[in-house]
Amino acid sequence: MSWSKLILVTLLFIPSSWTRVSRLNNAIKTAEKSYSEARYEDAVRDHQVLIDEFQYGSFALDFDLGLSNHYAEKTEEALAFYDQVTQSPDKKLASFAYNQAGVILGNKKEYQAALSKFQSALIQDPLNEQARYNYELLARWLKRDEERKQQEQNKPEPSEFAKRKKAEADRLVEQFRFKDALNLMEEALAQDSTVAAYQDFMTSLKDVVEIDEK
After folding, report:
1. Torsion angle (degrees, nearest 10) of CA 51, 57, 58, 62
2. Of 29, 65, 104, 117, whose Cβ has the fewest other Cβ atoms within 10 Å?
3. Rounded to two decimals, what is the model's pTM?
4. Alpha-carbon distance 118 to 138, whole Å?
5. Rounded distance, CA 150 to CA 148, Å?
6. Nearest Cα residue to 198 out of 210, 182, 180, 178
7. Non-local CB neighbours of 55 within 8 Å, separated by 6+ positions
8. How far is CA 33 from CA 24, 39, 65, 206, in A?
9. What angle do CA 138, 143, 144 make, to 5 degrees?
10. Running DSSP on this structure, what letter comes out for residue 104?
11. The predicted structure's pLDDT at residue 31
């Protein structure tokens, strides 16, 4: 038998499982390449090939699909994959998925739901510093926002005296006389409690004065 015939026979009898492994490895490399090059639409498609054609599945693959959809701005699809990954026995991976889901929900202004996701991320992995930062930042912002809303509700209706003093302070600000404007408003507040309606304005003046005096 000639060498050419021997090679042909050898190729014909290569097990199909070997070619499948080779094609799977190539598909994995393709998916990794499209993601690393920030071609996220392609990355979604290439990762999906692993599931559809090779029935290849793992929590890590789901996380990659979540990230690819996330960066491709397909947030609902991303959330679905992140939710699957939160069931992973790998607590660090589950923590990452909770954190990413929280980021999406926060950007959608679903703040309480986002806070819950960040909290779950920390339960899974207390050392996830990104989740800790996101949780603390959002928790503080929500607290300040609630305080601001309460202040708005309790804000008094300014009297005519208070309105005149605010107008005088505005003119001083136009002249960059911030400290004089602050003193004027504080003196007015001592005389009329409804000047508190301009508390935000006074707080801003204090900040400017403190910066100027440094």
Report:
1. 20
2. 29
3. 0.59
4. 9
5. 5
6. 182
7. none
8. 14, 9, 14, 53
9. 100
10. H
11. 63
Q: Are 143 and 111 in contact (CB under 8 A)?
A: no
**CA atoms 42, 46, 52, 57: torsion sign:** negative
Token match 């208070």: residue? 162
Backbone φ/ψ region at 136: left (φ over 0), alpha (ψ -120 to 50), beta = alpha
Kindly compute the dihedral angle of the four CA atoms of residues 84, 45, 54, 75, in this order, to the nearest 10 degrees: 10
DSSP string, 137-206: HHHHHHHHHHHHHHHHHHPPPPPHHHHHHHHHHHHHHHTT-HHHHHHHHHHHHHH-GGGGGGHHHHHHHH
Tell me the C-alpha to C-alpha distance, in Å, between residue 158 and each of 1, 80, 196, 199, 200.
Answer: 105, 50, 8, 11, 13
Q: Is the pLDDT of residue 201 over 80?
A: yes
Residues in the chain: 214
What are the C-alpha distances in Å from 53 to residues 20, 27, 95? 10, 10, 29
Residue 1: predicted pLDDT: 45
Show contacts of 174-179: CB within 8 Å, 24+ apart: 178/205, 178/208, 178/209, 178/212, 179/209, 179/212
DSSP SS3 for 58: coil
Confidence band for 75, pLDDT divided at 50, 70 and 90: very high
